[in-house]
Specification:
Blueprint lengths: L1 E2 L12 E4 L6 E2 L1 H15 L7 H4 L7 H8 L6 H10 L5 E2 L3 H10 L3 E6 L3 H10 L8 E4 L11 H10 L6 E5 L2 H10 L2 E5 L6 H6 L4 E3 L42
Parallel strand pairs: 2-5, 2-7, 5-6, 7-8, 8-9
Antiparallel strand pairs: 1-9, 3-4
Helix pairs in contact: 1-4
Amino acid sequence: MSRAATERPVPGDVRAVVFDLDGVLIDSLTVAREAFALAYAEVVGDGVAPVDEYCRHPGRYLPEVLRMMGLPAAMAAPFVRESNRLAHLVVPLPGAPELLGELRRRGVGLAVATGRSGARARHVLDLVGMLPLVDHVVGSDEVRRPKPAPDIVLRALELLAVRPADALMVGDAPADLASAHAAGVVAVAALWGESDPRTLRAAGPDVTLARVDELLALCVPPDGGHRGSPRDTPDAPPVPGTTPPIHRPMG
C-alpha cells in the first residue's frame, strides 16, 4: 500500500466504502471487448472495431463513451444484448467476495457506483453471487451526471446515510478517482485490475492499493473491533491473513 505525498487523511473511522464494479470487484474485460466488437460489426459494419480505444475509457457510461469515440449511439443496444448473453463468463476478482464479507462483518456500509446501468450491474452481481454482499448499487443511468462527476458517489453515500468525510471510493480508472475527489471522499486507486498503474497514479489518488486485501487496513473501527451490531451477512470465507470476528450474543 502506498500513499501520495499530497494525500488527504484517511478517516479514522471509515463508515462506508463505495466501489467501482468492473475491474475492481469483477473481471468482465473479456466480455466487454467481445460485446463491443460484435456491436460494432452489427451497427457500423466492415472494418476493425476500435476495441483498444474503447478500453481506454474504463468507468464511464457507455453512451458517453460512444459519443466521445464518435460512434453511433445505436451500438448501445446490441452491446447490452451481447454483454447479457456472455455474462456467464464474468467472474469475481480473486479475494473480492471475501473482502466484502469481512467489511460487512466490521459494520462498514458498502455500495457499488458503476459506469453500467443499475439493472445491468445488479444482474451481473447477482450472477456472480455478490449482490447480497453490498447494501446498494447505483448505476450511471440512475443519476443526472455519470462519472467523472460526483453525482453517483454522492447518491451512494446518501443511500448509506454516510458523510463524504467518513467514506472511501475505490476505483481502477481516472474517472473513478475524479468522481471521488469531486464528492469529497478519499480516492483509492485499485491496481489489481487491468488499468495501467501509471495512468492511475497520474490521476492523483489519495491512496494506492496493489492487492484487494490491503483495503482492510484502512477500515478498522477505532476500538479495533466491530461497529455496533453485526449485520445479517451471507456466509463468505474470511480474507486470507485475517482472523474471523467473534460475535457474542447480545444480552
